[in-house]
Please model this.
Amino acid sequence: MESDAAMDIAGGMTDGAGLRERKKLRIRETIAAAAIGMFLRDGFDAVSITDIAKAADVSRRTLFAYFPTKEDLILHRFADDEDEAARTVRARPAGQEPLEALRQAWLGALRRRDPATGLTNDPQQLAFMRLISTTESLGARLARYTSRGAETLAEALGEAGFDSLTARLAAVQIIAVRRELTLMNHARLADGQSAAARYPEAVQATDRAFDLLRDGLDGGPAKRR
Model:
């Protein structure tokens, strides 16, 4: 009976912890949704932290506990995915080269119309990308997330057998290429091209970009340890 009681207490503690985490997640999502809606409607610089806190029905202190800077309110989704490339490399099938795994992952994202590729017809996503590209402080903050993404990818490439210099240089190039592919897609869609019409061109650009990366990595004697 004592054992059963202990298990009940432990279960209750686990359930309590789960409830707290879900509550925190809901608060975070509520704040972010309020902020993004206001930014898209009024512009990033025209919206204050006080305005966002009021709309989300939280205090400024609570808001900053979830989002340390104003820029993080809109860029947190990039922070959440900054290690996505590294995870792709680590999860690749046995025998598959890291760069090929990244190529296939990006092609898959294009097929799914993943907003991260810039290939989406969603008006809100297009407005979101336009806001980032036209707001200087958001561009600067995004560069920090991009840098951290390159660092995590370099670590994964090192684990895959690349020497430290090659891993670092390759990671920076791969992240930069993916960013440029995204911007190219976004620019075409912003000009009125549909995602369906852009898709074949996006696939061609992706294959060309990863071919160039592959040829560059294959051309040096210090590829592997």
Observations:
- Residues 220-225 have pLDDT under 50 and may be disordered.
- Residues 2-42 form the longest helix (41 residues).
- The two ends are 59 Å apart (CA to CA).
- The CA atoms of residues 98 and 133 lie 30 Å apart.
